[in-house]
Records
---
Amino acid sequence: MTTKASSRTPDESLFAEMGQFIEELTASGALLATGGLEPGGLRLTSVDGEITVTDGPFTEAKEAVVGFALIEARSQEEAVEHARRFRRIVGDGESEIRQVFSQ
């Protein structure tokens, strides 16, 4: 699950709710990792064997992915429920769910 930047300023309530959410997901074994992402980053582009490295940021700040949670869900529906709970905690904004393929 990823989340994009929002206009909500974190406060003690947000930190408390998010802490509880993270504890519950960790205890259930669903949460594998979380982290914040720098808004800039680097972009590598390959064209005809030539690789170009460009410093970010690349999109408007409101479109930048700023955090992620790697979860293990038994179904897409379970992943959506975790993401819904996350969105209820952080408020307005946008998140994405992406499946990680493994061998």
Note: The first strand starts at residue 2 and ends at 4.
---
Amino acid sequence: MTTLEIECPVCAEVLELTDADRAELHVGDVIVCDSCNAEMEVTRSGEGEDFELELLGVLTTCPNCGEEFDVTEDMLAAAGTVQSHDGVEVSVVTCPHCRARIELEFEEAE
């Protein structure tokens, strides 16, 4: 049984999908990364290496109200960036539940 390795676009964790896993996945299904909770939609699922995912968002928990929400690419595009107290550039998003402004730091995948 072959295993297809897919790298998470957020944290670079390697997701391993066996032939059996892929047989259950269809275009439009969502896979969640165990490491960073990034949600990726299956956009193509064919034979061999013919498999693609598109990042939908990253599930995060608001430190203010404790509610979970997806940080989407649209949300990040609309968010401003600032330098945090330790000099790192962070994105500032608004919690859709309590409207708290939250600083998010993303590490570049290598």
Note: The first helix runs from residue 19 to 24.
---
Amino acid sequence: MAVVARPAPAVRFGSPQGKWILLTTVLGSSMVLVDSTVVNVALPHIGRDLDASLAALQWTVNAYLVTLAGLLLLGGVLGDHFGRRRIFVLGVVWFATASLLCGFAPSTGVLIAARALQGIGGALLTPGSLALIQASFHPDDRARAVGLWSGFGGIGAAVGPFLGGWLVDGPGWRWVFLLNVPLALVCAPIALRHVPESAGGRARGRFDVLGAALGALSLALVTYALIEARGGSPAVVVTAVAGVAAGVAFVYVEKHRSNPMMPPAVFASRQFTAVNLVTLCVYAAFGGFFFLTALQLQVVAGYSALKAGTALLPTTALMLLFSARSGALAERIGPRIPLTVGPLLCAAGLLLMLRVGKGASYAVDVLPALLVMGAGMVTLVAPLTATVLASVDTAQAGLASGINNAAARAAGLVAVAALPLLAGMGPEAYRSADAFDAAFRRAMPMGAGVLVAGAVLAFATVRRPVPDGRRPECRTHGCVTAPPLEPRRGPGTPDAGQAE
């Protein structure tokens, strides 16, 4: 049953209710952000404990990304339809329950299934946290609230690998997931007590469950085909064909539905289409890089989980510190140069990772590569988001951001599936330092090549946005797995929000 909304006083930033809203949205979004960065650090320990193959470790990452990327847009629409607080709380409880299943998983099969359920919770939770701020705070305070929300979220993303490494080396990898349960036990009651319910301008009409299901199914089938392609069985070919067919069906459904999840008309903007292609290139490289690097540091360089997690902090820290300045620079000089130079710097960072092998020195071998990589990410991520928003009408900016965010996550999951295959990693590669190191050295140039392709595409297609284009509300960003998500604004969403 849809929420019946009526006007309510807008919440001010300094009020007690405003502080409670910020606390619960930061806690909720941090659960997803931390989880997206800590699992990679835990993979070697998960593999040893559950006797998992490399394919099972790939699925541990990708089962989560398939449902998150495939259902992210639907999660925002559900919040508009049924109430943003209701869907946010549902997402928190769902995510925590799935995390509990992950923490007690007796086998890789159960863990992978629980990770897929976690992704569904993340898809409900991720757009909901920002939508609550958008709907609840007074327009004069909204930018400050969003800035604080994104800043604390970036801190959570930065702390994630360090915290994950400490948990893995201490009480064990299962606590990487179990940690979400107490966070949810704090988050959900605060939301129910202190956050006003709100609904957007889509309270009537159907929502595109079929489109979401086809999109997620296509991603799942293609990912399965890539991960299992080493065996060369006929089932792989059948699955690949079925995945492509589901993708074609998704496009057909979106073109012919009256209320599509991903309206094809938004791609009428050539620049929007081009920037999303650049997004696919750069976040495919990022997804493959962080998946393989967390393993390389532990399997080959001999780092503990804590040291490996700490080693990855510079990229996130640089983004957290300088993303706002990068966005301001891009506003002055235009996005073309940052979107060309940024991927090239990231490509150089991947090539510098070729120095990381057995007995690698952090200061001499690892840190320079991560600093160059982080500088590239700082250079490109904020201009990427700004260009996406400026490429469409203001009313479609939130939708455009959701599409771009989902595209980045889909690119990452395809890279995690495809890059080990292309680099020739066998099912047991992560158990052998020599075998993994050899494949890693083949994979990094491949990722660098994809980044160079993204830079060439950006240089050829990106132009300065129109002066009245919408600017990002999330100026501070620390997540390395996807660009910042902007709030959706339905046609009936008032400035001060709506409440039950």
Note: The radius of gyration is 21 Å.
---
Amino acid sequence: MSEQWWFCLKHMRVEPDQGCPNKDRMGPYASEVEAADALKTAAERNKAWQAQDQDEDDD
């Protein structure tokens, strides 16, 4: 099994599988780098979803 990484929202840092409870984390991610970008990725997805919702509302 490959290693998974998480971004801990409580401590604002990347953690391996053994870490805080999943309720306090985002993930899992395939790499430490992906986990480190978790907040940026979430913000980009939220922005895209908001734009999509706006486009649907305009129809």
Note: The radius of gyration is 14 Å.
